[in-house]
Amino acid sequence: MANAIASLCDTTVYLGKHQALSHITLTAHAGEVLAITGPNGAGKSTLLRALAGDFKTNDTVRLGKVDPAHTPAATLAPQRAFLEQSTSCTWNFTVREVVALGSSLDQADCALASLHLGSFAQRPLGELSGGEQRMVHFARCLAQLHEPAGKLLLLDEPTSSLDYRRAQLIFNSAKTFAQAGGTVVMAVHNLSEAAQSNRVAVLAEGRLVAIGKPMEVLTPAVTKQAWGVGISVMRDATGRVTVTTES
Q: CA 197, CA 200: separation in Å to the nearest integer?
């Protein structure tokens, strides 16, 4: 597979006294979308935060050749962007101004156009719906990493609260980012989305249950271990994904 962009090596993270991640080892490569899935509380968001450099983990996390937790924010910003579950902006900035944070107005305009948000550019962010604001913050991440090759895009449940059309737009944009040489690691609950990724990692109780190609990982044996219920995910020759549960 292509070059490693980000990795965890035997990484353990404690949140207070709670062990949120336990001895996780995985690598995300250039050109791929890696979906992280699992039940609520499995450690998906914590894993993304570890890759972003939010925790000091004794040099077990790498972004390229550096430990992101010990790298200045100004150095990290052009290399990785993180769309968290909850995003907010208390200033009355316009959409264009928000998207340009960390990049430029020209790059903001390109990102907005790619997501069909050009007509929103001069509107105050606070006037938009929650789903629309999520799209704007995703555009901000794209503008920040305007040249994807070798860069890391972290997405925490990026399609939550979005209608079907916008959810597909974000997912397709993530795939386009990867196809341009970037790396996408995204936490998802929707197994249909996970099935369209290049690889899937399944977490449960802070541990890595399985990682591999979607149809090899999203099987009743694995899902029963993670969710307590057998789930089958199948994709036909047209790419259509069907998710079924055992009766």
A: 7
**Phi, psi of 180, rounded to the nearest 5 degrees:** -85, 10
CATH of domain 4-79+148-165+176-214: 3.40.50.300
Exposure of 229 by Cβ count < 10 A (0-12 exposed, 13-18 middle, 19+ buried)? exposed
pTM: 0.95
Give residue limits of the domains in the chain.
Answer: 4-79+148-165+176-214, 88-144
Task: Provide block-wise average pLDDT over 10 residues at a time, the chain (247 residues).
Answer: 86 95 97 97 97 93 94 94 84 92 95 96 92 94 96 95 92 96 96 93 97 93 93 83 82
Between the alpha carbon of residue 195 and those of residues 8, 21, 141, 159, 241, the distances in Å are 22, 23, 24, 15, 7
SS3 assignment, position 137: helix
Which residues, at least 6 apart from 159, have a Cβ–Cβ distance to it below 8 Å?
A: 166, 167, 170, 171, 188, 190, 193
Query: What 3-state class would DSSP assign to 79?
Result: coil
In sequence order, what DSSP letters do the residues of 64-77 get, joined into one string?
TTB-GGGS-HHHHT
Lookup: tokens for 61: 């996390």
